[in-house]
Amino acid sequence: MDRSQIASESREGLLRSYSKERGESIPLRKSLEDAYRSSNDSDLDATDYLDIDPPKNQSKVSAYAPQQRLAAIRRTFARRSKCLIIVLLVCIAFWSVLAAGGFFLYKKTPLEGQSPPWYPSPAGGTVPQWSESYKKAAELVKAMSLPEKVNITTGTGWQMGLAVGNSGPAIHVGFPGLSYQDGPLGLRFADNATAFPAGITVGATWDKELMYERGKAHGNEARLKGVNVLLGPCVGPLGRMPAGGRNWEGFGSDPYLQGVAAAETIKGIQEEGVIATIKHFVGNEQEHFRQSWEWGLPNAMSSNIDDRTLHEMYGWPFGDSVKAGVGSVMCSYQMVNNSYSCGNSKLLNGYLKDELGFQGFVQSDWLAQRSGVASGLAGLDVSMPGDGLTWAAGKSLWGPELTKAVLNGSLPVSRLNDMVTRVVAAWYQMGQDDKSKFGGEGINFSSWTNDEMGFINAGSPDDKEKTLVNKFVDVQGTGDDAHSIIARKVATEGTVLVKNEGDILPLSVDGWPADQPHNLIFRIGIFGEDAAEGKGPNACDDRACNQGTLASGWGSGAVEFPYLVNPMAALKEAFNKDRVYVTEFPTNSPPMKQAPAVLNDQDVCIVFVNSDSGEGYKSWEGINGDRNDLNLQKDGDLLVKQVADGCGAGNGNTVVVVHSVGPVILDKWINHPGVKAVIMANLPGQESGNAIRDILLGTVNPSGKLPYTLGRSLDDYGPGAQVLYYANGVVPQQNFSEGLYIDYRHFDKFGIDPTFEFGFGLSYTTFEYSNINVAALLPKSPLPAPERLALHLHNWTTPSPTQVQRCFLVDSASSRSYDEVQPRSEAGGDEGGNSDLWNIYASVSVDIKNTGKVAGKEVAQLYINYADVEGDALNVDYPVKVLRGFEKVFLEVDETKAVQFNLTRRDLSYWCVKKQNWVIPDQGRITIRVGASSRDLKLTGWY
Ligand code: BGC
């Protein structure tokens, strides 16, 4: 197999073929070996076929007599020709359909480059927070040779180095090669590291401190494993489509929630000295067609997003991330407005680097770079993993090509210098030059083998020498600093109780509730495969199968579990064995049929069900990344119904626990009289069992709130929420025409009743809200105070029109627009945009009292709308409510605390397309509502 053939294979397939070329077996990740072996077994060609299929009634020897041999061949061919005819017919039918459709599709070919050009690329080093780092970086870069600079901008290639992404060093100036590793649930492919709860669970905690602490523990592990650049957190997908395959990597279907969670995570990671990467910029909302060739089409899809929607929705959390000082941004696979994200000058130069004032470096998602010089000019700084257009083809779009481009003047040297300076400045900014923190040993584990010894460049047939690659450094922390503590806290607080009829929960360790003393043994049945260990947490590559208890989605965002506490094991341990008898039924086979007696015998039945999804390069049972619906998987609905029907012969109480990558439809059984309690446990990571035990037994009072809406059907989320499963053009088009109206905003706009609304979650206690007070700290004015710092525009010579044509493949730069220096954004000026956008204009306080019988935490949420604005702003289309604040507060029984929210200028503004700026409606009043969920708003005030 030559390297170009390999391109369409899975990444794991690549390693396999190189080991074949090398004529030896190189260590595979254990789970891959079986797949390799079985694929070798079926490697038959035509002669093999003759050998294994002698004519009937003849011995194998006589079958090779000349005339019989001829007959055998004829027969073979007769069989083959039938086969061939069928294949041909299928092909003809296929091509006819395609030709007919093709004509139609070609008609629909979008015009290239609907994204306006924005050149030249703004250089970094424009804000005081980064000035020291830029000074040092400039010194270092000045001393680098051209190949050294190029080394830093270009990954070495897939599996060329121990991390998933590796860049080369600048040896003469002592700048090391950097390792880039996934994120965001933990350290991918690492041993002795923590499998934290996924982003969606973190979002469900609504707890800023936990968000920060999880980020810090994650960053700490990355640093101790020698990772320079962590490929997380993730805020794109935002959650436009509830069935989107990777929503679980992010924090929930609202830009404000995502933004806060991302900023806290980034602070945590970067305080540890590791460069965080916010991804995927931007509009990577579904897996289907996200990438060229992965879905059989030469081009990726285009997410078509209008200016206001970009600012208020998909770009919003990136703004928070830049404000938090993030060191890297990963541009996404697909196109935005028909220009690839990683070569989209409007996005990278205009929005990210000019308006948002991003100071770090833009790296491509793996193979998301689709052009050479053009993407450099459009603002891409680092090409990852450096392979070029196809996996491991060895034809980088940069590397030597970038050197040539600089030498022949296609890419100004100032742009190259800026690319490199941005990387080196981020390295200084995180303190990675400090040897006491970053020992200089580099990465101490291999992504490509679990053995101690392995190849540094596993992807190269020329690397024939094994060295020590896995040092098995345990980075999980110990004692009070064990990261399992924070993992468990997040999992517990990210668990959402949505139904608790008759206060059936919490259960007592002694079984019978204190007010119903009983001599009988209390019987608890635990049902469902999702409660149990299954084949172990790491049974499938990158966790791409749904078996055993679900604690993570699949793909690059998943990790090797060091352990996974399953709910069954944790619950069995939890109850008083003298008083409570626990029965296990760890399968999804209908218990009514299999074990009716078991079911009828229970006082309480706890049933575990789930729904899984992941990244598009893997699939499981017809789920190609994105889910095909929002139903429970593995007949979960039937399991719940049967358990609820039969539990305690109809008198039992059923508790349903759902592990899920996102929203699921509960309506098939939510009103079943036997279903007394329902818990959305999201994706809890390694501490799953302990977390659910804490909640079920009331050791911890539930305080999670839904980070998404639970609708009654997928259709309820609106047309914009539908994944595009079938191509609607040669470049599939997803028009984000619903604009600001996703998730709860859509439900509000169309008056649709959800099963449970965004922000909803119950507690074992009750809270009372009172005394809203809005203080105007700064007077209203429509626009932020003008602010522009000195801009370091590149001083480059304009290339000839032919060069320009060569450079701009998709991004629609005509030579005219290429010459034109774009006006600087008035909304820019500092990191995260104009610094006035971050000033606090209003502060809101409310009193919250714990009126129940146990201590607990409440998440108070603040939403705004423009219902009472006047003047021009009356024409502004604004959602019924938009989240603009949340605070989690702990309250003892009867305790009251004042909770304060700060509203920035950005929070109160809308993005005005005409003014190209954030605008506060200054006539009339902005309505502020505070409450316990998006539909339980108890207090109203005005600014
Ligand atoms: C994913 C990224 C990931 C990268 C490296 C890509 O397929 O989209 O999120 O960081 O692979 O593993």
Automatic annotation (TrEMBL):
Coiled coil: none
A Pfam family it matches: Glyco_hydro_3_C
GO cellular component term of the entry, any: plasma membrane
Family under the similarity heading: Belongs to the glycosyl hydrolase 3 family.
Subcellular location: Cell membrane
Keyword flag Cell membrane: yes
Catalytic activity: Hydrolysis of terminal, non-reducing beta-D-glucosyl residues with release of beta-D-glucose
SMART domains reported for this sequence: Fn3_like
One Gene Ontology biological process: glucan catabolic process
The name this protein goes by in its record: Probable beta-glucosidase E
Annotated ranges, domain Fibronectin type III-like: 858-934
Membrane-protein topology: Single-pass type II membrane protein
Claim: Lipid metabolism is one of the keywords in the record: no
Role, per record: Beta-glucosidases are one of a number of cellulolytic enzymes involved in the degradation of cellulosic biomass. Catalyzes the last step releasing glucose from the inhibitory cellobiose.
Region named Disordered: 1-24
Keywords on record: Carbohydrate metabolism, Cell membrane, Glycoprotein, Glycosidase, Hydrolase, Membrane, Polysaccharide degradation, Signal-anchor, Transmembrane, Transmembrane helix
Alphabetized InterPro entries for the sequence: Cellulose_deg_GH3 (IPR050288), Fn3-like (IPR026891), GH (IPR017853), Glyco_hydro_3_C (IPR002772), Glyco_hydro_3_C_sf (IPR036881), Glyco_hydro_3_N (IPR001764), Glyco_hydro_3_N_sf (IPR036962), Ig-like_fold (IPR013783)
Stretches that traverse the bilayer: 83-106
Domain of life of the native organism: Eukaryota
